Amino acid sequence: MTIAAVSVLAGALRLWSLAKVPADPFYDAAVSSMPLSLHNFLLGAYEPGGSLAIDKPPLDLWLQVLSTQVFGFGSFTLKLPSALAGTAAATVLYDAIRRVLGARAGVAAALALATLPIAVLTARSDTVDAAAMLLSVIALWLLVRFAANGRSRWCYLAAAAMGLAFNVKLFEGIVGLPALILFGFLVCRERRAVRLAASAAVFVAVSLAWLTMTLFFPAADRPYAIGSTNASAWNATFVFNGWDRIAGAATQSTLNAQLPPSALHPANNSELARSAVPIGSPSLLRLLDHDGPLSGLRLGFVLLAALALGVPALIWTIVRARGPDGDIERALCASLLLWLALGVALFSAMARLHPRYTEGFTPAVAAVAGIGVAWALRDGFWQRLFTIVTALALTLYGRYLLGASSSAWQLTAIGAIAAAAALWLRRERARGALLAVGLGLATLALPLQVDASLIANHEFDSGVTGAMAAGEVRAISAYINARSAGTRYEFAAADPTEVGSLILYDRRPILSLTAYDAHELLPIPRLKALVAGGELRFAVLDGGCERRRASVSPACSPGAAWVRAHGTDVSRRAGLPHNHVLYQLRTR
Known about the structure:
Mean pLDDT: 87
Radius of gyration: 26 Å
Strand order of the largest sheet: 4-3-5-7-6
Helix content: 55-70%
Structural class: mainly alpha
Number of strands: 7
Number of domains: 2
């Protein structure tokens, strides 16, 4: 299969029925607010008034703003940048691997990434994690160019690409950085210390460019970064999206322990039902779990192929490579081994994990799996041994994942049998053809089946932060807009992350009573003054204050308590099904 066909397949899997995939109101609200002013655009404003900002640098949202401004605002255009990035990544990975290990390994690696279910899922979501993944693959490609001709510019461009990846998805974007540093170190033959120091300077400068830019705005003009504890985008970056993601107090184990046993087991054996099971707690085999949104169906199956066949292939290449070209081969194989190992260790141990985070190492998974398949097509004792072991392992694991109720795993078994049988054919051409078909069927049948399920069920991994029922959004909007003439703000929200749909629907400035972890954001004296002056007339709360969650709930914040004490609950009048949601504030 040529790379053109692989690219077409990658694009089809990511673009097919893309408009039907649900949106993420949180980030989409920001995409709708940012074009309203240069201030909003540069600082990643979450709401039209520019008082709040998203929790990350807005580089990826700039791509979505461009897409929606050119092609119109909609579900398809919001996800188009991510889908295109995921498609391009397969092609770039092909060329990076091809230049060092040959076209066969490049095509196999590209095909693995093109069909990897978790990569397809992420590219069909509007969080644009695929753009960070693409940048890491571009950095690898640039370093391969550097290894080939020794020109420093390729090394510095690779550092810049990783700096941009940091600006897209912060630390997720630089999971592969240690591996890329190793590759650059091993292939750099002249002025190694100078080039590494200069590359580090480029990386730091690009990584911190946006955060530094925010400091040029007066403090009063900077929107409050959601997720921070002190309004600073730096705090949101390095604490909320940094340390807390790895070792935050609310671990995945704690979250899962709060769920009933019925929530930890799927209602049936379908991919869709199992994806509703909460992600597994940190453990050595977490990435190979039977259930969950990051189950073996989505990542673990291809990861197993990478571990069982790709890792031996990389080690074999490191041992056997000779000459100047062999130095580059050894360097690439060593860096991919490190990238794969870092990803497995990190995502097996993270306290808070979303499936999309694994885009930080999916290029390594795909590259190692593809290199393993290409290596298996060679004729040798070790290739035959590991081909048989991998075919058996994939068959048993596929059977474990799909269960007795499904016959789809049998395609994996048929491919494994064909691959094993091919090893005993004497005619080299027939053996190679049957082995390629067998390995292709064994490694691709299950991922493609899962891809089809993802597309048919319009699945996504962008979350539903800020989502509200469409009827509630229309009811609240109609009630407020009919009674808010002359006001500056549409409403004050107990928690800004809960009202993304309303922001997206009306595109009017709002205020927030709290920030991350129910931290008070709008002091009572200012709230009183805004209400008294007629600038604010409504508040949207997240229900009533329950004693058991009083310490962490925005609905129990001082501002929310003041709203309930001095406002009128008009939820039922507005046509809402619950009380304690919409309050009208008395102007004096």
